[in-house]
Protein 1
Amino acid sequence: MMKHEPFLLTFAALAFGFACPISDAFAAAQPIFWNALRPADQPKATVPLSGKAVSGPQGETLAWHGEEHPIELTGFVLPVDQDGDLVYEFMLVPWAGACSHMPSPPPNQLVRVVPEEPLHLARMYETVTVTGNLRPGLGQAQFFMIDGDRVLTYGYSINHAQVATATATTDPDLLSLSRFGILPR
């Protein structure tokens, strides 16, 4: 038995050493709300009462900088790259209808998402929970609509995201979800 003891000790040390990084990689995602993406002194983004865009820069200050840990964020899907009902890239927005028929939310309230696998979109503005590493950084994406195209400035992105349909949320910025995936207003 003594002859195998150094081997077993070495094996145990190697197994323990490799187990630590693996357990960190599979750590549970931290649920966050939309207010974590903006500075505390910036009011929450609301559905504009008019179709007028606000002039001047706003919402370009990014508050989230925890990109080393995965997060979960619930919001509405606004397809950017789509083929039929498959979505390859989308904006996660804090309210249904954001960007398409009204001014877009501030950049720190827009998240560009590239799902790990194409998302099968059942309906426009589907409510989803996105899991992945949220990376801060202003960027732009072109969004096509029936009446033309728009360039959206987003403040965050998640690549290789896992996406699941959401049925409920406790995010105060989203209020509550109806069974149609839209917010009661």
Protein 2
Amino acid sequence: MGDAATQAGATWHPSPNSGPRRDGLRPELLLIHFTKMQSAEAAVARLCDPAAEVSAHYVIAEDGRLWQLVDEAARAWHAGRGSWRGAGDVNSRSIGIELANTGAHPFPEPQMCVLERLMHGIMARWHIPPEGVLGHSDIAPDRKDDPGARFDWRRLARQGFAVWPEAGAQAPTEAFRDLAAQVGYGMDFSDADLLTALRLRWRPWARGPLVAADMAVLADIAARFGVDRSGADA
């Protein structure tokens, strides 16, 4: 593991809550979280507390201050139980970024600008594609809602840092679980949890039962970025 920050401008604040990535795995996903704490400093302290048994690679404060807690080559403990594209141990397959946010307010411009610079470097170093950028709610929709409905995924997508649905796709509601699986969602979650995760990511204003607009999102993302798109992900 390294003994200095990978990212220029980051304060190196090493957390003991880390270890080697398992089974030769390397980062192929970038996971975005919110801290749901009152300050970035409190989040850094908790993520470096051995008793908490949690960590992340990076923490970004609302004013843009950046801490690196775990070397990118190492396994941070930020994802917990969850899966994506049929595979578990997301910690060994991802880099985790925590954004200081209580979950009740927008993400400020200084914080988003630092996030974008950080993502640019991480995605280039590890060859992570835009479809590999996820929210914690994507891999654990039964228990997590971060980075939440106020996070601006569309902004990231406009810069090539995430994916966003295009208009025009259609699919019957009966195809919901099949398309959700093609996008990458785990099939051990309920329909209700999957719908909540989908809407947190792409339709945060939506309410009520599954509708055609939800299906259009799944159909488009599955067609352009899904597991079966190239046959490479079995």
Protein 3
Amino acid sequence: MAVDREHVLRSAAALLARKSTSTMDEVAKAAGISRATLHRLFAGRDALVRALEGLGIEECEAALTAARLGEDTAPEAVRRLVRELEPAAGLLAFLYTENQLFEGEQLYEGWARIDAGIAALFRRGQQSGEFRIDLTPAWLTEALYGLMASAAWAVSEGRAAPKDFTHMVVELLLGGALRREES
């Protein structure tokens, strides 16, 4: 019987999003396979995390495309982006804490493309006068990631309702990012 690698990755992502310290045995159990089968697919935890990183990049790139970041106002595009990223938020929260992904001088090209796309959205909002110009697009991008990870953890721990995810992230982010008229 062939093992569905995608199923194993999605099972691992779901488990690690809830319990980032899960062992390879726990990952195998969650995927419904033996530890030996898991090790045939992924030589160890590092290989599994790298594969999850690839899945996370795929999910983010698909969300960026679906969110149509160049359409409508920048705040509306941010709302769409958060809605599109929400299904992957648990995986992204796990990846956000995996320091090994960010070691070394070379940032994975996929993350760089994602960062550039999101930063371009914030830059567009600044150029149109919708977003504050004293916060860099890079910082607003990092703030978005941090808020999404925090919301994913809050939802997974039962401290926030899943239906409130997008509202919590968008309102807090835009509450700080929107340009206000000087009084």
